[in-house]
UniProtKB/TrEMBL annotation, chain A:
Cofactor entry: Mo-molybdopterin
Subunit note: Heterodimer of a catalytic subunit (MsrP) and a heme-binding subunit (MsrQ).
Keywords, alphabetical: Metal-binding, Molybdenum, Oxidoreductase, Signal
Role noted for this protein: Part of the MsrPQ system that repairs oxidized periplasmic proteins containing methionine sulfoxide residues (Met-O), using respiratory chain electrons. Thus protects these proteins from oxidative-stress damage caused by reactive species of oxygen and chlorine generated by the host defense mechanisms. MsrPQ is essential for the maintenance of envelope integrity under bleach stress, rescuing a wide series of structurally unrelated periplasmic proteins from methionine oxidation.
GO molecular function: oxidoreductase activity
Family: Belongs to the MsrP family.
Modification after translation, per record: Predicted to be exported by the Tat system. The position of the signal peptide cleavage has not been experimentally proven.
Note on how the cofactor is bound: Binds 1 Mo-molybdopterin (Mo-MPT) cofactor per subunit.
A Pfam match: Oxidored_molyb
Catalysed reactions, as listed in the record: L-methionyl-[protein] + a quinone + H2O = L-methionyl-(R)-S-oxide-[protein] + a quinol; L-methionyl-[protein] + a quinone + H2O = L-methionyl-(S)-S-oxide-[protein] + a quinol
Protein name according to UniProt: Protein-methionine-sulfoxide reductase catalytic subunit MsrP
Automatic annotation (TrEMBL), chain B:
Top-level taxon of origin: Bacteria
Organism: Hyphobacterium vulgare
Coiled-coil blocks: none
Cofactor binding notes: Binds 1 heme b (iron(II)-protoporphyrin IX) group per subunit. Binds 1 FMN per subunit.
Described purpose of this protein according to its UniProt entry: Part of the MsrPQ system that repairs oxidized periplasmic proteins containing methionine sulfoxide residues (Met-O), using respiratory chain electrons. Thus protects these proteins from oxidative-stress damage caused by reactive species of oxygen and chlorine generated by the host defense mechanisms. MsrPQ is essential for the maintenance of envelope integrity under bleach stress, rescuing a wide series of structurally unrelated periplasmic proteins from methionine oxidation.
Pfam families named in the record: Ferric_reduct (PF01794)
Protein name: Protein-methionine-sulfoxide reductase heme-binding subunit MsrQ
Subcellular location: Cell membrane; Membrane
Transmembrane portions of the chain: 21-43, 63-81, 93-111, 131-151, 163-181, 187-205
Family, similarity comment: Belongs to the MsrQ family.
Sorted UniProt keywords: Cell membrane, Electron transport, Flavoprotein, FMN, Heme, Iron, Membrane, Metal-binding, Transmembrane, Transmembrane helix, Transport
Length: 327, 225
């Protein structure tokens, strides 16, 4: 008999899923049907834009089945699907929170491949189906804390990043992992003011990347990712500010030096490489002590938790580090 | 004199319609925001998107800055068109900018700081965009207080006019407040900044190229000095 030890955050999905989620799911199933129909017609319906289109290498109907290993967020209801998919930062498609939902469907996400480079024995170009076992998906409910002092609680579907990285057999020179987002000037909306140097790049220290909490997500709310949420494959690093959870990944590089990261390059005094959620270290321009809770009423606020509530799992990685210095 | 001055329709418009129409136009953004909030609490909780407080801050800030810019456009408009009656709505446009800025500051105090004055002081001291925005707002206060006939009489036209040149640094502070608020290099602050630069540049150009046109010179002529 397999005896599995469960951590505090290990709860079955049934224990935590509120009724409105189940009701939501029925709506998603219905939407899934509509999406399948519209796909055959070559159109992109509103439902499809919200729930994500099926892609090659993924289940044809776009529905994902995940093992019930929900990681319980410290508290709070799930953020409704329309907020999760309608309030996004994906600056390649515009700086307004509603721009990604409006324009990200222009992004070509099929076919998709990820180039793996750097200090590893197994490198090259891989399809999503080469990296992700769609029969071994996990459901993880994480709080996403944006550096802009708002948060959501999102039911992701994906696999832990660590075992995938291990499958590339990184060498001892691989001390960091660098990630890069898809970039296409034609499909994206880069105006005369580009905001950042594109493509978007992010990175993690090796131990951060291998932490069991770090997720490579392919879906949310039981469906493949909508484009605005980083389709077809993205990172979710729940104890760090949202911009570390890089979207629409096309490149993974094993590197020996700390890699450049987009927001840090743009404003090094405001966005550090680590960017761990920390209520005690303010952004130079605003407080990080509390956060607005998206979709929970106009004035909903909560106090921000150290490491976004995941201190038990991650604090040891930063033992002895000055977190105000290494923000 | 320009042809505009002779048109009876235009003269009648200036006399009867300009003030009420401008008042309505200046109230529209505020009424629109109220309507959106009514929706949030009744039949449409996402009328202001998924982060209504942030939307409110941006809406009020944008409106205050844009109305302020419009107030700076009145004089160049008069100079270009020679249509003098437009000047009679300049003061109310400036006042409207002040009221939107007041709402902007009030919303920030109420929603973000929960009325905490120590929190306000900390923000003003520590966060450059709050410092700039608050400076712009504080400087608007004397302009708002003196924007009535009684105060103009009491102060005298020259002193009043001199005080109200504060609107130029206020516009600059406001647009820097906006620019330091956004993440990365974005278009919004630059566009607003360019318009303000154009409007202030016009005044500098007018002062240099035609010193006789300045208010002070004309005032001296009127007084026979």
């Amino acid at each position: 008999m397999l005896i599995k030890s469960r951590k505090s955050w290990h709860l079955t999905e049934n224990d935590v899923t509120p009724e409105h989620l189940y009701l939501n799911r029925r709506a998603i199933m219905a939407a899934g049907g509509a999406a399948a129909v519209s796909l055959t017609a070559g159109a992109c319906s509103a439902e499809e834009a919200q729930t994500g289109a099926a892609r090659s290498g993924m289940p044809a109907d776009g529905n994902l089945t995940a093992r019930e290993t929900g990681y319980l967020p410290p508290d709070g209801d799930l953020t409704a699907l329309d907020a999760v998919t309608g309030y996004n930062n994906f600056y390649e498609f515009g700086t307004s929170k509603t721009d990604p939902a409006r324009y990200a469907d222009r992004m070509t996400t099929d076919p998709w491949s990820i180039e793996v480079t750097g200090h590893a024995e197994r490198t090259g170009r891989f399809g999503i189906e080469d990296l992700i076992d769609f029969n071994a998906l996990e459901a993880r409910i994480y709080r996403l804390r944006c550096v802009e002092a708002w948060s959501m609680v999102i039911p992701w579907i994906g696999v832990p990043l660590g075992p995938i990285l291990e499958s590339f057999r990184p060498t001892s020179d691989a001390r960091y992992v660098a990630f890069e987002t898809y970039f296409d000037r034609e499909e994206m909306r880069i105006g005369p003011f580009p905001v950042l140097d594109w493509p978007y790049v992010e990175g993690l220290r090796m131990d951060e990347a291998m932490n069991p909490l770090t997720l490579l997500a392919v879906g949310l709310y039981d469906r493949v990712l909508p484009n605005q949420n980083g389709a077809p494959i993205r990172l979710v690093v729940p104890w760090k500010y949202g911009f570390k959870s890089i979207k629409s990944i096309v490149r993974i590089s094993f590197v020996s030096e700390q890699p450049p990261t987009s927001w840090n390059r743009s404003a090094p005094n405001e966005y550090g490489f680590y960017s761990n959620v920390n209520p005690n270290v303010d952004h130079p321009r605003w407080s990080q002590a509390s956060e607005r809770v998206i979709g929970a009423g106009p004035f909903a606020r909560r106090d921000t938790d150290m490491f976004n509530g995941y201190a038990d799992e991650v604090a040891s990685m930063y033992a002895g580090m000055d977190l105000a210095e290494n923000y | 004199m320009a042809a505009a001055q002779r048109s009876p329709v235009l003269r009648s418009f200036a006399k009867h319609c300009l003030k009420p129409l401008s008042l309505i136009a200046l109230l529209v953004p505020g009424l629109w925001l109220i309507w959106l909030w009514v929706q949030v609490f009744t039949f449409n909780p996402t009328a202001l998107g998924f982060d209504p407080v942030a939307r409110t801050h941006h809406f009020l800030g944008d409106t205050a800055l844009r109305v302020l810019i419009v107030s700076l456009m009145v004089t160049p408009f008069r100079d270009l068109t020679k249509w003098a009656p437009i000047i009679q709505i300049r003061r109310r446009i400036g006042l409207a900018a002040f009221f939107y800025a007041l709402l902007h500051v009030t919303a920030y105090l109420a929603f973000d700081l929960r009325g905490s004055l120590p929190g306000l002081w900390e923000d003003v001291v520590e966060r450059i965009y709050i410092t700039l925005g608050m400076a712009a707002f504080v400087l608007l206060i004397p302009l708002a207080i003196t924007s009535n006939n009684a105060m103009i009489k009491r102060m005298g036209a020259l002193a009043w006019r001199r005080l109200h040149t504060l609107v130029y640094p206020i516009a600059v502070l406001a647009v820097f407040h906006y620019g330091f608020m956004v993440k990365g290099v974005q278009m919004g602050p630059w566009i607003h900044g360019a318009v303000i630069a154009l409007l202030l540049g016009y005044r500098a150009w007018r002062g240099v190229s035609n010193p006789g046109s300045s208010f002070r010179t004309r005032l001296r002529q009127v007084r026979g000095a």
